[in-house]
Amino acid sequence: MPPKREVTVEGEPRMSYVHELIELAKRHNPGEPEFHQAVDEVLTSLEPALARHPEYQENRILERLIEPERVILFRVPWMDDQGRIQINRGYRIEFNSAIGPYKGGLRFHPTVNLGILKFLAFEQTFKNALTTLPMGGGKGGSDFDPKGKSDNEVMRFCQSLMTELARHIGPDTDVPAGDIGVGGREIGYLFGQYKRLRNEFTGVLTGKGLNWGGSLIRPEATGYGAVYFAQNMLATRNETLEDKICTVSGSGNVAQYTVEKVNQLGGKCVTLSDSSGFIHDPDGIDAQKLAYVMKLKNVKRGRIKEYVDQYPRATFHEGARPWGVPCNCAFPSATQNEVELRDAEALVKNGCTLVSEGANMPTAPDAVDVFIANKILYGPGKAANAGGVAVSGLEMAQNSQHVTWLRDEVDKRLNDIMRTIHDTAFAIAKEYGHAGNYVVGANIAGFLKVADAMLDQGLV
Predict the structure, then answer these.
(1) Do 112 and 196 reside in the same domain of the chain?
(2) Is 226 contained in some domain?
(3) For 314-328, what is the mean pLDDT?
(4) pTM, whole model, 2 decimals?
């Protein structure tokens, strides 16, 4: 979409305020396309709110919002099992603390760079605001790849990273969690080193083991939350997930528990994927098959193509994504920009009526336009996948009270939070003239909470 233009008193054309800021962000952050994309998507959707609230422009809230409060970059030296010294980069982006301590995951993956983490931290700021919990936005990680590494190599890397990171985080300052490449094993090693360095047992990380401060439902939370959000979207059309055919991308934590919850609600998931391709099982991935996937990916750390060796009625599609498979509902749960324009068109053509994002920004902007133009129920990641950070916030609450809630209580709170996020985004979209557009509703709702807190706290 070309930049919008206004006409000044002198008659000379100029860019609108929002598009001037988008161009400013691109100039100030060269070579960071994911961050540019996130800023463009959020700021463009905020125009109705800015027109109604001139105080945000007067106080330059947006200029402050697109600039991280703090960016931390450091060297992470570690030794592999052959005694060779390896060097990686570590990052922590502390983006916005207007409504609470920085909160967001750590990602270990070769593709990690400054631009990707800034996009994730920027998105996290609004996502956390939507949860109704007091959490600011942050993100971090490293270009370290845990795949193919021994437990001892992962431990040495995590200990080296935490040796530097520990000075920047804390239960009332910045509370990291897991993300791609950072599961229970990595959180354990990171927490152990933090405890060793600081001589304190605090809720500085979430996603901890159940026997040392973790919360029930935390591993399931992002996947469950994306399904709960889908359930609420369907309810606006008097539908349920019963008998719906669902395609799911990814095969990690989010995808696994998306499948589990869809099964529990009567739907049928027929795909999973990883970087090598996707499997299509027309019979559905039931509880027994899902247990096999969990063992394959979480214990053996194998590839999804091995699924067809165990279940030969399924087919493996090398180097492809599952969006050409006919379905009623789609759950992108792998990584950013995995749903491109042609994928969105294929989904619409094949009868998909709902997309609920388990991953962060998995849909490219022109694909989002296709969904909205075709009145697809489209739940953007900052709303639909907020369940993970919501239960992280509940884990922080349990840690601060030195209590552990029962599984049913955490699950009920998660369901309630996802319903609140849905209802808020739905109502705000309607209020600002974009009924049914969850992108506009979620962005404005999250923005209003953060912007008002920034106004209250003065120029900081």
Answers:
(1) yes
(2) yes
(3) 97
(4) 0.91
138 and 152, same domain (yes or no): yes
pLDDT band (50, 70, 90) for residue 301 = confident
* HEC string for 216-244: CCCCCHHHHHHHHHHHHHHHCCCCCCCCC
Q: What percent of the chain has pLDDT over 70?
A: 97
Closest-CA residue to 93 (of 109, 60, 117): 117
| pLDDT over 50 (residue 213) | yes
C-alpha distance across the termini of the chain, in Å: 34
What are the residue numbers of the active site? Answer: 139
Mean pLDDT over 285-300 rounds to 96
Clarify whether residues 349 and 230 are in a common domain.
Answer: yes
CA distance 265 to 262: 5
* Residue 118 pLDDT grade (very low, low, confident, very high; cuts 50, 70, 90): very high
pLDDT mean across residues, the chain: 95
Handedness of CA 186, 188, 191, 196 (dihedral sign): negative
Evaluate whether 170 touches 201 at the Cβ level (below 8 Å).
no
Q: Which domain holds residue 159?
A: 70-202
Same domain, yes or no: 237 and 135 = no
Q: Map tokens 């592999």 to a residue.
A: 80
Domain boundary among 344, 379, 414: 379
By DSSP bridging, strand 136-142 and strand 271-274 are unpaired
The set of residues, in sequence order, having a beta carbon less than 8 Å from that of 259 and lying 6+ positions away, is 223, 248, 269, 272, 285, 290, 293
Domain harbouring 148, CATH code? 3.40.50.10860
Across the range 197-224, mean pLDDT stands at 95
Q: Are 102 and 233 part of one and the same domain? A: no
Instruction: Look at the chain and report how many structural domains it folds into.
Output: 3
The position carrying tokens 């960071």 is 32
- Residue ending a domain, among 325, 346, 379, is 379
What long-range pairs does 11-16 form, CB within 8 A, spacing at least 24? 16/47
Residue 337 DSSP class:
T
Q: Is the pLDDT of residue 2 over 70?
A: no
